[in-house]
Design goal:
There is one protein chain. It is built from 16 helices and 19 strands. The protein is an alpha/beta fold. A hairpin with a 6-residue loop joins strand 4 and strand 5. The longest helix is centred in the middle third of the chain and has 24 residues. The N terminus is likely disordered. Pfam families: NAD_binding_9 (PF13454). This is FAD/NAD(P)-binding protein. InterPro entries: FAD/NAD-bd_sf (IPR036188), HpyO/CreE_NAD-binding (IPR038732), L-asp_N-monooxygenase_NS-form (IPR052189).
């Protein structure tokens, strides 16, 4: 640098100003005083959506759409349980900030407002030496050498943003249709049908789905719940509580503008209801069989693990440990041996072994009290129904029994398994590439732990009773009939039967295949040498989120955080007092960024 010239201001570009971008900004503000002092720094936030809520939690979406988490289970702030090198900066949970009952499931608009407030608080915590610049635009590409300045190109702007490093907090991403979806779209166009590909339901144009007409819906998770809400209450229907011989029940009063939703999926059942009680007494001590030591051993093995061979056996033993610890300590009358005896033999038995199965069978007399992950994963695999009406009755019974169980503390091992699932996901985040190309684990976790509030499933039952939701069953497949010009759906639950419709909705998020990502920026990263896993995720260092190249080297100036990376987590937000892996990663990324900037010549 020439003598007498002022030092160039260092700059960070954060692409994505939603929850994860806000989390990074909060950790940046917390660590600047220690690691960067009063040196000048520019932070550029790039997002076409409002800073804080971003796209998913924007405050202009339907007020009928709820969060999938209780207000008391959502925080954007660190606490003493979070293991970080930076300072802990406590803050209110969503429930505390909004003055809500912690057990309620608030609307997404309320969460968006909380996120906006948290974003403004993070910005206010930055010292005067840090200047924030907002750009309501879409980032298209990141260019620049590993050892030089990075250039972030934005739509509608000729000159790129120049930065010393880039943090990608892109959130959930769109995807271009795959070959099958393109084929379905062409079929729909030829015959004047309606085809809605995988998308975020709140963003989809549902106006083309006609009242009173059958609609095939493939997908029974959270995207379906949103679809159900928007096409029923969103079209003027309402629910009433009526008294009956078996107590109160929910009844749907239609507006007459609703379509008839024929819904199916691979499992054929909705995600399990959220659990409606808290554990009393001590929680299972976790982790026990899948903790840091086991992850260290997996990391020491060359190449990514094979999830089913190397990881799943350890996970099943961990889930079983939580389940049986709770069963033996809280419900000992349903066990046949003393806990200390069972615990010793359980610890010694190999996972997924006949020895372990025999131990459980002898110690837990009722099969309903045993943990069977395979049966949980595919509850309808061996079930066949004689008629469509028998299928409707069978699925209504399944949903009602699930609701009752998930709100009955007599089944508290279910909640212990939920805690174990969260513990497992926190450990898996350290592995990066799980060796799970079909994303099976994430789907299994979501099915058990990320289901809707119980009230949504009660609404589903009311809609089924009203004839506005019809169940298709498990193993649902959709074909096209060129002669009749309709979509046709069938399932393994009802062999030989077909349902026809002139509309098809894919109620699920787009698959993360690298070649189909809707993010031009991410496609460009892959073209430039960033590594994508077989599961379609951007490979990152699980510690601080540095982007990994196909050669395995971390990029010194590029970080990526969020659900499109190999360090993704099971839930959208962190529960208070659970250690918060996302907070740890945000803190490590912020500290690594500041140390890097401080070490640059002239800093």
């Amino acid at each position: 640098m020439s003598a007498g010239l002022p030092a160039r201001r260092r700059a960070i570009v954060v692409v994505g100003a939603g929850p994860r971008g806000t989390g990074f900004l909060e950790r940046l503000a917390a660590n600047v005083p220690e690691l960067y002092g009063d040196r000048p720094l520019d932070v550029h936030l790039v997002d076409p959506h409002p800073a804080g809520p971003g796209r998913i939690w924007r405050t202009d979406q339907s007020p009928l759409l709820w969060m999938n988490s209780r207000a008391g289970d959502v925080t954007l702030f660190t606490d003493e349980t979070v293991e970080i090198d930076g300072p802990v900066r406590p803050g209110p949970t969503l429930a505390e900030w909004a003055g809500l009952d912690g057990a309620v499931f608030p609307g997404r608009r309320r969460q968006g407002a909380y996120l906006r407030w948290a974003h403004e608080r993070a910005r206010a915590a930055l010292p005067p030496s840090v200047t924030v610049h907002e750009h309501r635009a879409t980032a298209l590409r990141v260019d620049g050498p590993r050892d030089g300045l990075q250039r972030v190109r934005l739509d509608g702007r000729t000159a790129p943003l120049v930065a010393d490093l880039v943090v990608l907090a892109l959130g959930h991403l769109d995807a271009r249709p795959d070959a099958r979806q393109r084929e379905l779209a062409r079929f729909a166009a030829r015959h004047g049908l309606v085809h809605l590909p995988p998308d975020f339901t709140a963003d989809a144009d549902l106006s083309a789905l006609p009242a009173g007409e059958p609609v095939l819906v493939r997908g029974f998770g959270l995207a379906f719940v949103d679809l159900m809400v928007l096409l029923t209450e969103g079209r003027g229907g309402r629910y009433e509580t009526v008294a009956g011989p078996e107590g109160e029940r929910l009844v749907y009063v239609p507006s007459g503008r609703e379509p008839v939703l024929h819904v199916g999926s691979r499992r054929g059942v909705p995600y399990h209801s959220k659990i409606g009680y808290e554990l009393d007494g001590a929680r299972p001590p976790l982790p026990r069989f899948f903790g840091p030591a086991e992850v260290d051993a997996l990391l020491a093995t060359p190449g990514p693990p094979d999830f089913r061979r190397d990881v799943w056996p350890l996970v099943t033993k961990e889930l079983g440990w939580a389940h049986y610890h709770r069963l033996f300590t809280a419900h000992p009358e349903r066990t046949a041996v003393a806990w200390h005896d069972f615990e010793e033999k359980y610890a010694a038995a190999a996972p997924l072994s006949p020895e372990l199965d025999a131990l459980v069978a002898a110690a837990v007399p009722d099969p309903a009290d045993r943990l069977d992950p395979d049966a949980l994963d595919r509850p309808l695999d061996a079930v066949r129904y004689a008629s469509a009406e028998a299928l409707q009755e069978g699925l209504r019974r399944y949903v009602a029994e699930d609701l009752a169980r998930r709100h009955d503390p007599a089944h508290s091992p279910d909640l212990a398994v939920f805690d174990a699932l969260l513990s497992v996901y926190g450990q898996l985040a350290r592995l990066g590439d799980l060796g799970d190309p079909d994303n099976w684990w994430h789907g299994f976790f979501s099915f058990l732990a990320s289901g809707p509030p119980g009230s949504r499933l009660r609404q589903l039952l009311a809609l089924s009773d009203a004839g506005l939701v019809r169940f298709l069953g498990a193993g649902t497949t959709v074909t096209t009939d060129e002669e009749r010009g309709v979509f046709r759906a069938s399932s393994t639950s009802l062999p030989g039967e077909w349902t026809e419709a002139r509309a098809l909705v894919e109620a699920r998020l787009p698959d993360p295949a690298p070649e189909l990502t809707g993010s031009a920026l991410l496609r460009a990263l892959y073209e430039d040498g960033a590594r994508a896993t077989d599961a379609g995720l951007l490979a990152v260092d699980p510690g601080d989120g540095r982007v990994l190249g196909r050669d395995g080297r971390p990029h010194p100036r590029r970080f990526a955080l969020g659900p499109y990376t190999t360090a993704r987590l099971g839930g959208a937000f962190t529960r208070p007092r659970t250690g918060g892996f996302a907070f740890r990663q945000n803190d490590r990324a912020a500290r690594a960024a500041l140390v890097f900037l401080r070490g640059l010549p002239g800093a």
